[in-house]
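Final paragraph of the annual report: two paired records, presented back to back.
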Amino acid sequence: MTQELASPKLASPLADATGARVHPDGIHENLSRIQDEVFSTASALDREELADVARLIRRAPRVFVVGAGRSGLVLRMAAMRLMHLGLGVHVVGETTTPAIGAGDLLVAASGSGTTAGVVKAASTASAVGAKIAVYTTAPESPLAARADAVVVIPAARKTDHGSAVSRQYAGSLFEQVLLVAAEAVFQSLWDADGTPAEELWLRHANLE
């Protein structure tokens, strides 16, 4: 008699290799927690600080962005939006990024304000007469000291694992609010520019 082979039991999408389960209620709780943290932290941002960044962007012939890790990824997103507005934007570290010069703007992000590569980029920009805008949690940091405009994001630093400010891991809250802040700056610049969305879309990448 032919014995039927038992069908392999499919692993639940909510179970990991050890069989531990992630409960939907936990997902809901964390969604609510993150939403609340982002809302409260973004609400605490200084609007005039953000307006200072927007003014520097409008006046700059070229904008350069620099950040490490996840902060750098957020600023890449911000650079894309500024490109959609028709601005000359470059990401520091790319092979086609030119030298920064006098009058240009460097937008830098570092939660701690001590990230070595980001601080070095700001020092170089300052030495050639470029303006500097900084997003950080640390207004007393070496990066903030080099800036013409500083946006203080009151989030926990990624090394502050016991912070009461956020229950999220590392610098997640800083990076989330950095995105919101950068989007608010872009949206305000777009409002002032008045270019229809259809025109902005013509600048969107078509070699994807």
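The closing record of the year follows.
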Amino acid sequence: MNWYEKLSRYFPTEEMKSREHIEALLKERSDIYFKDEGEHHVLMYAELEDFIFVDYLFVSKASRGQGLGGKLLSSLKEKKKPIILEVEPVDENDEDTAKRLKFYQRQGFHHATSIGYKRRSLATKEVNKMEILYWSPEDSSEESIYEAMKKTYELIHTYRDIEWYGESYEQVHEVLEYEKTNRDKTIFDDLD
């Protein structure tokens, strides 16, 4: 099974970029977009001057619980930059959503409660609410995480979108919002 099949089988359709989109990023944005692939994992990420965005992290079921995901994130943490990623809220019908959140919580990630993020999938046409998690070697502000997410959205998510999907994603200000007051509750609060 190739890297794209692994990602497509694991991630929901509404979260997947097309293969052409990802391959274009790897080829045309090779200065910032990278793939780390092994027999049991696929890690796709963008590394910019002041942060890292994890686009996809897949670890095979056979390898889960053996520390592989933690090692992959540790290699990114060694770069001493904030690490940002998107995660879907807990879905009672998909136990993996809670497991993923617990994993990221164990890895020291925080929930950016002041950032609202809703994006319409060009594949399903549905609006999906996502949450932003981040790890920082220093206490980065959520406002700086918000600015990094805006840059990620414009450089990675919407890269040549009309060419790949026949239409554009929404503008960044329609997708991301920053509330100056943090919500009291984090995405981790409902975990067992």
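The chain has a mean pLDDT of 91. This concludes the annual technical report; the extension proposal builds directly on these records.
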